[in-house]
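SUBJECT: A protein chain and its fold
Encoding: whole-number codes for local backbone shapes
RECORD BEGINS BELOW THIS LINE
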Amino acid sequence: MSDAYYGEASNITNNVSGVLVIDKPVGITSHDVVQAVRSGTKIRRAGHTGTLDPRASGVLVVLVGPAVRLSEYVSASDKRYQAVIQLGITTDTYDTEGQVTSRSPVDITYEEFDATLQTFVGQFEQVPPIYSAIKVHGRKAYEMAREGEEVELEPRLITVHELELLDWDPPEAVVDVQCSSGTYIRSLAHDLGEKLGCGATLVGLRRTKNGQFGLRDAVPLRRLQESFADGTWYKYLIPAAEALGDWYTIELTVQQVDEVRHGHRVPATEEMEVGKWARAISEEGELVALMEYDPQTTEWQPRKVFFL
């Protein structure tokens, strides 16, 4: 790892590229966290890779410096949550932020709940909540909904990999959710309530994993802000290459690093499937480029190159 990560704080410049994994507290927006990072690091290029609502807490991955160019890839990573769902109540926002739209008695057993829950495992179309930041004709859906306008959102294809009932204390249940990017846990809770026939709403949400990063990798926001003040924040910076830690990896020689940064291909050491992508790293572990396999020439073609 280069001195850019563990050198003195005074030597950190806007060329620093990496990842800050933050445990976002309840009560602030994801954008607030990014602003805190920009202010604390004095690096303007920073962005998160998956919004958490103000009432949700947990893993928020913030890319800093040139690493922001990885956003589309990290954002597409699977997510994991612990969701607290309350049965017998529905709201217009599908969570406790909204107005109550119905109340119903709850007469559901553990077995009935879990059996219905498991029907949501797999790939299916999900309609996002109208109180969301999805844009409709250039306007955010929640703004239109708040103004009383009719909002229709197109269903999205999502994948729920696994659902586990962690705690059953009617009318509340705690569920572990492993899902694809783009899944709305609020909609999942709402749709589950409809299928059970008693209604349901999301009353608590904590993201426990985003792609390669989990809570054990996350620093509480308050602690990170303290490190901004004393100049030690860089110790929490994770190398950009680790954001794609599950990708196929090509380790480049010093000569190949120079070649790749000039757009030249490198030979593949083994045959790959069509469309295979890989991360190319230097001998020091720094991310050099994202590469795509060309089956015609059995070479790796640079598609996105990083200059540090």
